[in-house]
Write a structure and sequence with these properties.
The structure is a homodimer.
Chain A (H helix, E strand, L loop, with lengths): L17 H14 L8 E2 L2 H8 L3 H13 L3 E4 L3 E4 L8 H21 L4 H14 L3
Antiparallel strand pairs in A: 1-3, 2-3
Helix pairs in contact in A: 1-3, 2-3
The structure holds a DNA duplex.
DNA sequence: TCCGGTGTATTACTATATTAATACACATGG
DNA sequence: CCATGTGTATTAATATAGTAATACACCGGA
């Protein structure tokens, strides 16, 4: 069993339920091809510890992913990305990213930032996330 | 009483509680200087109708804003931006926008998009939000 | 077999979010 | 005064989110 170094970004104060954040990230990783069939996710206990949440919360996320056919839960081994889980078409992935970027940009405008300022922030974040 | 054409963007499926979305947007509008002391927010009933949520939910958001000193609730008139509510320093506003942009960009990467693709999406969204 | 890991079941609990409905107090304008 | 708007109080309900604790079943390796 290959222990994945994968870590989920959980922002507890973001207002989005924890389990939902996990689900969303796994879905994105699979859609983007960074998780492929046969890959294992970090265990319920690992994620719970790393993110400092209850294991059952993580299990809930994984349960939803299983219902969606993204992963298969293998007792004793862990969560395995399904054979049927394929990366998404580019257009779809674009659309999903757009739906995250657009509100963020809109909020930046509400905050009174100019296009130029928003652009600078964007480029900085893009660079930061390159690691 | 000046009826504000202001409308809140409420994304029910985003996972962020509705009242929280309202609060965040008002805070951003004030920080960005687009709402200034003496301005009135749309009424509880207006927002509830527009967003198709219960008035008490909106009232909750407004109540939190009042507790934070952002608005004053004037019975019979509506919600008025407080005299003490001032736009935030640029650095703070930048920081806030960054905290929204960074996760969105990170997710875009998880989705397997290249920098170039992310940039194109960003520019498109920036243009769209210019209206 | 033992050990260390995997996920699960289970019941109960707490906290939060949202809603309902309706009458009330307040404000403004005619 | 009436009409139309404002926010509020109130009690109760439902749904959701997260947690606790612990033992169980399963798995793989030594």
């Amino acid at each position: 069993m290959d222990t994945s170094p994968l870590q989920f970004d959980i922002a507890p104060s973001s207002g989005v339920p924890i389990y939902r954040q996990i689900v969303d990230q796994v879905v994105a990783l699979v859609a983007g091809g960074r998780l492929t069939p046969g890959d294992f996710l970090p265990s319920v206990r690992q994620v719970a510890q790393t993110a400092d949440v209850n294991p059952m919360t993580v299990s809930k996320a994984y349960g939803l992913l299983e219902s969606d056919g993204v992963v298969e839960r293998i007792r004793g081994q862990g969560m395995c990305v399904s054979a049927t889980a394929t990366s998404g078409p580019l257009a779809e992935r674009r659309e999903q990213a757009q739906q995250l970027l657009a509100p963020a940009i809109h909020r930046a405008r509400l905050l009174g930032l100019t296009d130029k300022q928003i652009r600078a922030l964007f480029e900085a974040s893009l660079k930061d996330s390159a690691k």
